[in-house]
TrEMBL record:
Signal peptide: none annotated. One of its GO terms (cellular component) is membrane. Residues 446-498 form the HAMP domain. Belongs to the adenylyl cyclase class-4/guanylyl cyclase family. Residues 538-665 form the Guanylate cyclase domain. This is Putative cyclase (Adenylyl-or guanylyl-)(Adenylate-or guanylate-). GO terms for molecular function: adenylate cyclase activity; nucleotide binding. InterPro entries: A/G_cyclase, A/G_cyclase_CS, Cyclic_nucleotide_synthase, HAMP_dom, Nucleotide_cyclase. It comes from the Bacteria. Pfam families: Guanylate_cyc, HAMP. It is found in: Membrane. Gene3D superfamilies: HAMP domain in histidine kinase, Nucleotide cyclase, PAS domain.
Length: 710
């Protein structure tokens, strides 16, 4: 009987193993469901992303071809007109007629009337556009013919401004008017047919616009000496006047054009050649409206598949848009609010409002625009000009004479909205699965034997910090043996835990004295090589002026005590402002703000730290009755930070930003804070700075610097 009893009591219970096997199978099944769901989610996301990028690339390529075709068409039509007999004869005859009027001059009373018309009609419009009243003399024409013809065709024109082109005969009896009555209806019809905003003829010798269809204030003015000598039309005429090649076409990019009310205007010129000699330049004035209509799809973004946030836009080499952003047309109030939110300058916003268009006034400098202007096609997720994640396709346009990039984009949130719904559905299914697993676990917890529950309770007590916890050993099966092992482990760990905690506490304090808390945590997490790049931080160097001479006769203990007291106060100030002390070298103190945890106002915090350091140094010097001043240098920019060393760690910074901050300190003046342009530009509205001009910096040459007024 005794033998039989021993055998029964020592036999392992099989119910526990069965439950464990069942639980394992359930968990494996749940894992399989989760893995399948996750894989399905990511594959669906990748497929949708590819489809969106393909659609954006296709839309961009179509619009690029449309814009390129538009310019090729204008090119061909302009060349055809420039070689026509009508244009050649009109150019020759208009030149002769203009010369006659120049020699005849214009009466003073006629000049006065033209000046009065400018003052009443043109100057107020320019004042509204420029935001200031320009001088009347800056825009008045030069020469007798311009005054004469502008009076008859502009000032005395019976038609309103936008319909001046309807006047064929000014009835002044001049030779020019007779020619105008013959050629103007033909020229006006040609401009309307091919879609030119204006159609001009220029004399390459004088640079004068001897004929225009629209009769704006550039009519008969000189592009060499007049108010528009620096305009893009002057550049187009000058280029075409130098070549007798009938196939030559000179295209000048869009720019605000004063005669057209500051609207964005491009000019395409073609030489008018007679017997191998350039006798004129035929110029087409191109409005931005045609290109804007192509790129925006007639402002039918939803019909073109761009959804609620998608669009396409053009940018030029100056990163200014050549077509209007969607938000400008759909919601101007929200558009201007977004511009403010992403840091657009008030001057840029005011220019858009004055000119009534973002074209040539809104700057878009993103990864996509930079790549497109560099001639690179591509797709990817970027931060758009509105400051939100965006899926985009970009590429250059092939238009001789201009360097443009085209971007088609849609907000990532809208593009991935179906994936968000799929993720929600998967979370619901996953939640139901978790409920099933929880119900199974509850059943298992009720079905397990009492010793297992007691063991679990003991483990929990131990995990909660009760290092004297123990559990009764009621069986000799696997659970009983586990209880015995647990009790032995608890007894052993209880003895060792005190020692370990004391050591850990000591190590923690030592590590945090050497390294920032996030870096220390990463080291404890197993990272062996820590090096990070930070795009924007602020670094400060401080140095005690005359400290070496001051402490030359002091005992070593007093030197250390004096310096420790001062730097301890620096440390307290740094901790209050969220600034990380990097190191001290002798009487020099180095700190940084913006890492390892980035902060938005790192420059402001560091300057306030510098101010405190100067005041603390003054107080410390007064308390110890010594003469001592602090010199501080501050700079902002990118750095590389990392941990070096194996047996003795040190967290340090490297980069040009650090070097320049050190040079700012060494080149500063005692009892002052010297900053670079990068810091000045960020804080010039918050602090008062005094410019020092360009100072000599070792390894840099001349560098601008400012002193903070304390």
């Amino acid at each position: 009987m005794s033998s039989s009893g021993v055998t029964s009591s020592s036999r392992p219970g099989r119910w526990g193993l069965a439950v464990k096997l069942f639980t394992t199978l359930v968990l494996l099944g749940a894992t399989a469901v989760m893995v399948t769901g996750v894989l399905g989610y990511f594959r669906a996301r990748d497929a949708l992303e590819k489809a969106v990028f393909d659609q954006l690339a296709a839309a961009r390529q179509i619009k690029a071809r449309q814009v390129e075709t538009y310019f090729r068409t204008i090119h061909a039509e302009l060349r055809l007109l420039a070689t026509s007999k009508m244009v050649v004869e009109a150019t020759r005859e208009f030149r002769i007629a203009i010369d006659k009027l120049d020699r005849a001059g214009a009466p003073p009373e006629l000049r006065q009337k033209v000046g009065d018309w400018y003052a009443e009609n043109f100057i107020p419009e320019m004042t509204r556009i420029l935001g200031r009243e320009p001088a009347l003399s800056d825009y008045l024409p030069v020469g007798g013919a311009p005054y004469y013809l502008q009076y008859h065709y502009i000032a005395a024109n019976p038609n309103p401004g936008e319909r001046r082109k309807l006047l064929d005969d000014a009835n002044d009896g001049s030779e020019y008017t007779k020619l105008h009555a013959i050629y103007h209806p033909l020229m006006r019809a040609a401009a309307t047919t091919v879609g030119f905003f204006d159609f001009m003829m220029a004399d390459p010798k004088s640079g004068r616009l001897i004929y225009t269809v629209q009769k704006e204030v550039d009519f008969t003015t000189s592009l060499q000496f007049g108010p528009y000598r620096r305009s893009n039309v002057a550049a187009a005429v000058a280029r075409c006047a130098e070549t007798a090649d009938r196939s030559a076409v000179c295209l000048e990019d869009f720019a605000p054009y004063a005669p057209s009310g500051g609207a964005p205007i491009a000019f395409m010129g073609a030489p008018v050649i007679d017997e191998g000699v350039v006798i004129g330049v035929l110029v087409a004035q191109l409005s931005n409206e045609e290109i804007d209509n192509v790129v925006t799809g007639g402002r039918r973004w939803r019909q073109e598949g761009f959804g609620d946030t998608g669009e396409a836009y053009l940018v030029g080499p100056d990163h200014l848009v050549r077509s209007g952003p969607r938000a400008f047309y759909e919601n101007q109030e929200g558009y201007f609010a977004e511009l403010k939110s992403v840091g657009t300058s008030d001057e840029e916003i005011a220019a858009i409002q004055r000119y009534g268009t973002p074209v040539l006034h809104q700057r878009v400098d993103t990864k996509a625009t930079r790549a497109a202007l560099a001639g690179v096609e591509g797709t990817g997720e970027i931060i758009g000009y509105r400051g939100v994640p965006t899926l985009a396709s970009w590429g250059p346009l092939e238009i001789p004479g201009v360097k443009w990039g085209l971007v088609a984009k849609i907000d990532t949130a809208e593009a991935f909205a179906p994936i968000a719904r799929l993720r929600q559905d998967l979370l619901i299914v996953g939640g139901l699965a978790l409920l099933v697993v929880a119900a199974t676990a509850a059943w298992l917890s009720r079905a397990l034997l009492g010793p297992l529950r007691e063991l679990t309770a003991g483990v929990r007590r131990f995990a909660a910090g009760d290092y004297g916890a123990s559990v009764p050993v009621r069986t000799r099966d696997e659970i009983g043996q586990l209880c015995l092992a647990f009790n032995g482990m608890v007894a052993d760990l209880s003895q060792k835990n005190v020692v370990i905690e004391n050591k850990n506490r000591e190590n923690e304090e030592l590590l945090l004295n050497v390294l920032p808390a996030p870096i220390a945590n990463r080291l404890r997490g197993g990272e062996h090589s820590i090096a990070d790049g930070f795009a924007e931080v602020t670094v400060a160097f401080a140095d005690l002026v005359g400290f070496t001479a001051l402490t030359a006769e002091m005992p070593p203990q007093e030197v250390v005590t004096f310096l420790n007291g001062l730097f301890t106060r620096f440390d307290v100030a740094a901790n209050d402002l969220g600034i990380e002390k990097i190191k001290t070298v002798g009487d020099a103190y180095m700190a940084v703000c913006g890492l390892p945890v980035p902060v938005a106002n790192h420059a402001e915090r560091m300057v306030r730290m510098a101010i405190r350091m100067v005041h603390i140094t003054r107080e410390h010097a007064m308390q110890h009755n010594v003469s001592m001043k602090l010199r501080v240098g501050v700079n902002s920019g990118p750095v590389v930070a990392g941990v070096i060393g194996k047996s003795k760690y040190i967290y340090d910074l490297w980069g040009d930003t650090v070097n320049l901050a050190s040079r700012m300190e060494s080149g500063s003046v005692p009892d002052a804070v010297q900053v670079t342009r990068a810091v000045y530009e960020q804080l010039k509205d918050q602090f008062v700075f005094e410019p020092r001009g360009a100072i000599e910096v070792k390894g840099k040459g001349k560098v601008e610097a400012w002193l903070l007024r304390l």
